[in-house]
Amino acid sequence: MKYAIGIDIGGTKVAGGLVDEMGNVTHITRLPSNPSNREGMFAVVCRVIEQVLVDSKLSAHEVCVGLGIPGLVDREAGIAVFQNNLAWENFPVVARLREAFPAMKKIVIDNDVYQATRAEWNYAGLKEEELLVYITISTGLSCAIMTRGDFIRGNGFAGELGLIPLKEKNGHIYSVEQSAAGPALAERGKEAYNDGTVTPEEIFRRYRLGEPLAKELVEAWSKDVSQAVYTIVSLLDPQKIIFGGSVMTLNPDLLPLIKTKLGEWIVPAQSHSITSLGISPYPNTGGIIGAGLHALN
User: Fold this and answer.
1) What is the CATH number of domain 127-279?
2) Tens digits of per-residue pLDDT, 279-295?
3) Between 297 and 212, whose confidence is greater?
4) Among 15, 43, 185, 216, which is 20 to 30 Å from 86 by CA?
5) How is 20-70 classified by DSSP, letter by letter?
């Protein structure tokens, strides 16, 4: 059995684990990120790799490494080009890791959403010619598209669902991300309750208790999400649409509401799209697994 260390890099934590060829993950390690310090962040990544090696009792020459990095990456050059939440602009992460772990067989990088999508493809069991779209909703909102085991990348920026203009309010155009990501829901709640401490978690809690204002907020949010999904349905008609990200994986009971709202948009010929929607089976480990599979394949 071959093994890889999958690394999922985020603004709040760096997570890593040992991934096998079947997509199983063990020896998971998580450490807080150091997002404002370029070298400090790299040191955290190295510590996670070192800890997984120690826990698995494997040597560097016995594993390869895959990393999922936010934002724009140059996969061929091994460079983290730009991120909103890290101080890694044009950071040569692969070259630096080769210096730190010279015995390591192979080191690869990709965008973090793309890496998580690899795990979903591995799990979904689709036919080669079928299409999977993975949508992540958390502090941001984005998607990735896979078919035949590889991505539809366009010129390199495909999948930026969050950038699509969605609606106009008070003379301002709001994108999908500005309408449907976690911070957008929080802002709606703060305004509605006149309370600057309101979070999406609190809104969902009140929604489950049947509070009318929370119900109004969540239904408006789910309408925005469903409209974004309908864009994907109309353009791609994929066999699977999988939701990831903390907003959805921590609140799977919201999926029926989104399906209901989607049903208001679709035409009869698209009715199969309702059943194509699902929640990721990997609430915390998809990015690790996908990054590991990338290195192994």
Assistant:
1) 3.30.420.40
2) 999 988 999 999 999 99
3) 212
4) 185
5) ETTS-EEEEEEEE--TT-HHHHHHHHHHHHHHHHHHHT--GGGEEEEEEES
